Amino acid sequence: MSQPRGFRQTNAWLHTWIGLLPGWLLYAVFLTGTISFFHEELTVWMKPELHHSVAQPDTAARALAAMSERAPDAALWQIQLPSERSPVVQVRWYAPGEPMGRGSGQSLTLDAATMEPLTARETRGGHLLYRFHFELYGLPRIEARWAVALATMAMFIALITGVITHKKIFKDFFTFRPRKGQRSWLDAHNALAVLALPFHLMITFSGLLLFMFLLMPWGMDLAYDGDRRAFFNDTRSGRMMAPPPAATDAAPAPLAALAPMLAAAEAQWPRGVGSIQVSQPLRSDARITLREHGAASLRDRGNSRQLQFDGVSGEPVPMDSPQMPSITSQIYNVFTSLHLIRFGDTTLRWLMFISGVLGTLMIATGMVLWVVKRLPQRRKQGRTPLGHHLVESLNIATLVGLPLAIGVYLWANRLLPAGLAGRGDWEINALFGAWALCLLHPLLLRNYRRAWQQQLLLCGVLLLTAPLAGVIGGGHLFSHIGRGHGLLLATDLTLIASGLAFLFAAHLYRRRSA
């Protein structure tokens, strides 16, 4: 390994090696993170039983009536209304005095038109990829988060050293020389890096901020004497819902009409109402709280505005103004909200998704460039070092193998019987089993040109045909067209476009090889 000389050469050396060593993990994190911008939509796509639900103008009122029948004695109702990301109504209720927490209360998924319960197939859906993005899978949670955090830090250093290395980076952005081997790959890598450079810096830095309490917990431990639970309780106190109240002696009373409350809320909130919470329902001291769809501001990290009404008279009830976070908290909230994009509408999500695709391709071209740059040396020596064999195999298994495995995951979702015991685990096993085979394939084949071409071709076919797999397992492209489901159609078209891209790459690779 030659020693670098000079400041720019030192940064180029650092950029190369700090980008290579965690590169495969970074690619997986970036790819699954990009998909996670639409992980809720993908989860709905993977539950065909929910596709028949269509929101109606009176869905909110119907949901309230349905809860009056199903849980008249509950202390608290929570109703999540349909949105552009989900077509169903999600309801949860708690008994008097029952603590709120994971697994507590009772919940149902309801059809938005009929309010009939819907039972969807067992699947982790897009949520699996979302969790994999920051804590991998099958590893201890803390160790996995440390691995992703260190890889994110390496990515941030690679971005900075890359900018320093390319003194003509903006000029190079407008330069692309096709069919020039190493030069073409470098041009593509530079162009992809510069095209979405603000996004790359923002998403990487904000990712580090999300890991801040893992990487640098000393201030938190000092201020709270090591009691981290107390720290998080304090920082989240403004976002936590009050626990369900205990039973009272209030007299039974019908709930006021919901329509005037919705009209008052929608007059203030252009995005409309996202959820309804009813405390002490069907009693004289009932309170109805409406929450805005989406976040009020970046500074509050996804908090939505609220309006509260007397549940019997329908009159507005004054609420305490939420306490404004400190300046440091506001800065933290802005960056982490940008990363999580819980506030964004569909257009902004698409912009973030496209930027994520560019970032994923930037990492991929950098990994390929490392191999292409060393091909002349391998040809001169007449042999391929073991390390190069390993890099080439890992490139194929990660850059193509992971999208291929996700294609297998989607097909498994449609082909496995809906009532299969442990169905969600079988889908996950299909994903990681396919990914493992994608690593064994180039190692055993020992012909990297064929391995690249075969995996590119198979990946393209799986993704291209995934929207049609539902002809067998329910929920397919033609049924989505017939119902006019924009959410599902967008998912189908994205899969088709991705499949065509991989098939086109296989075609180019075959022509290049010939």
TrEMBL record:
Q: Which keywords does the record carry?
A: Membrane, Transmembrane, Transmembrane helix
* One family name in Pfam for this protein: PepSY_TM
Q: Per the UniProt record, which residue ranges are transmembrane? A: 12-38, 146-170, 191-215, 350-372, 393-412, 428-445, 457-481, 487-509
Protein origin, superkingdom: Bacteria
PANTHER family assigned = IRON-REGULATED INNER MEMBRANE PROTEIN-RELATED, PEPSY DOMAIN-CONTAINING PROTEIN
Q: What is this protein called?
A: PepSY-associated TM helix domain-containing protein
Origin species, per record, is: Isoalcanivorax beigongshangi
The organism's taxonomic lineage, starting at the top: Bacteria, Pseudomonadati, Pseudomonadota, Gammaproteobacteria, Oceanospirillales
